[in-house]
Each structure stands twice: as C-alpha cells, then as structure tokens.
Amino acid sequence: MEALVCRKLGDPTTSVPSDDNSPVVLSKNHPIPTLDSPTSVRVQITATSLNYANYLQILGKYQEKPPLPFIPGSDYSGIVVAVGSKVSKFRVGDRVCSFVGVGSFAQFVVDDESRLFRVPDGCDLVAASALPVVFGTSHVALVHRAKLAPGQVLLVLGAAGGVGLAAVQIGKVCGAVVIAVARGAKKVEYLRSLGVDHVVDLNHQNVIENVKAFLKERKLKGVDVLYDPVGGKLTKDSMKLLNWSASILVIGFASGEVPVIPANIALVKNWTVHGLYWGSYSIHRPQVLEESMNELLSWLSSGLIRVHISHIYSPLEANLAFYAIKNREAVGKVVLVFEDKTMKSKL
C-alpha cells in the first residue's frame, strides 16, 4: 500500500515526499496492516485530515513521540474491507470514521471495532475524515467540561482554525452568544457566514476594546467561557474580559507561547481552568468520546454543523498540505485523499 512514513524528525514542508531526504517519504510498497485481534477491522482510507499536532509530531515537538519510523496521522474516514472473527458492529462495505494515535496517512488502517463510528448515509466521507479530532475536542471541551449553556457568552480564539470553527458552530448549537477572534478579511467573512454574533479581526482591531464595546452594546456583563487554542498574549488580553465564575478551556498553544494564568485572580474571580487533552479520553473516559462522536455525527447528518475543508491534497503533495497548516493558510481543515486522487469532496 501507499503510506507516508516519517523516517526522521524535521520540517515536512521543506521537501516533497518523493525525495528520499525528506522527513516524510511516500512509500509505495508499505505492508498492509493485518487484523491483530478477533475484534479488529481493516479500513480502506478515503481521506485523512491534517492537524497541527501531526505537524508538531513530525518536528519532534509534540508531547507524544512515537519511535521512528512511523506513519503519522490521526483522524480518518473510509470503507470497511475486512473484519475479525468476533466483530459484531460492522461488516465489509460499511462507511466509518475514527482516529488513531499514529497511522492514518496510508491507504489502509486497522482499528478495534470499539473505536469506529458509523458515518450516516448522506454524510460526505471527506468531511467525516475531518470531524473526530477538531469537532471532538471542541464538543468535549464545551459540552462536557465547560457545560456551555444557552445565553452564556463564548469567546473563541483562533476561530478560523480547525478547532476554532468547530467551537463556534457547537457554541451556536448550544445557544450561546459567540464571539470569534481571527485574523484577515477572508476568515472574518466565513465566520460571519456561520452566524457568529461578533467577529474581531486582529489585523486591525484590539480584542479588549472591541469585545468590551460589543458586550456593552448587548448589555452583557462579560465572557463566561474562553476557548483558547492559541495561548500567548492573546490569552492574557482575553482574561480581562472574563466574568466572575468563568471557565477557561486550555486547548493548545498555536502561538508557541504557553500563557500564565494567575492563580490569585482565578481565586478572587472563581474561575475554573480546564486543561483538555482530548486524546487521553480514549483511555480514561471512552464512553464520553463515544457519546460525543455519535452526537456530532447526528448533527453533521442533520446539517446543524458543517466541516469546512479549504484544501484537498494527494499524498505526493503532503509538503503543500503541511505548508498550509504551518502558515495558517487554511480556513477550517486540510485533508489528504488516498483512495482516489481524482476524488472531489461534495463540499
């Protein structure tokens, strides 16, 4: 099978996968993974999404460091092509999506049936490939951790990225007043098309002054939930907008700077700080993940949420895909398509 194999750590944007000196090389004859248990399922991958964590992992800067060589990749969608002797939930031909620690940047992946989710009829498989990690992260964070309620004010940083777009949509489904922070006219325009209540363009607007003016206009006291995949100075500024008893969701540090949340202010204002490493839920709270994914797939099927894919690449163009991730060019998601290089998303 074809597979993108990380043979050494480095920047995958600097050379094409056909170059033997590239950190990530396209192998044409990689072994097809075998069914390793009676409940395992082999999936032929239709599409697999790129996440910033995948890029960090290849650089060697992610918290989980698999031994070399490894196939990167996390969330994916595809068609079941083989099942173990005790598989009861799926059969050959079923449309599924899921996520793995590593291994989805390939034509085939093997996973246990307990980790697979059936993609409803009518859902685009390319869109489903980009659902688990970003929408799963945002759903668990907002619904299960912060318990976002109708009428609360949600402030989303990095709102035009994968998790950000997921967060603003989930916020609207939950009935929140959603404020989105992004950079650039194209991203602002798309966020407005999603029905976001207010958008701050960091290219020419100050987040503190702009949000305070909006809150005053709406007669709102402050932000109840801060969704933060960015970190750095933007986190520090956003904390000046938080209500008493607000929740801070620490999702990531796309700015490259880990913010400091003053414990004395958290005490006085009764803030709750939630660290969220979504992948660990598969170990510690698998039932939460299952409930979350099933609800998200239901929302996707009914049109309550949509997965915006701005870039689709073939495996030979993986360097371009990572470049779009590295340079924040994507509005939403970037995906690789393995099964059929001519395939076009319904989106």
Automatic annotation (TrEMBL):
Pfam family, one: ADH_zinc_N
Domain of life (superkingdom): Eukaryota
Record-linked SMART domains: PKS_ER
GO molecular function: oxidoreductase activity; zinc ion binding
Enoyl reductase (ER) domain boundaries: 18-336
Name the UniProt record assigns to this protein: Quinone oxidoreductase-like protein 2 homolog
Highest classification ranks of the organism: Eukaryota, Viridiplantae, Streptophyta, Embryophyta, Tracheophyta
Gene name tied to this protein: LOC111489168
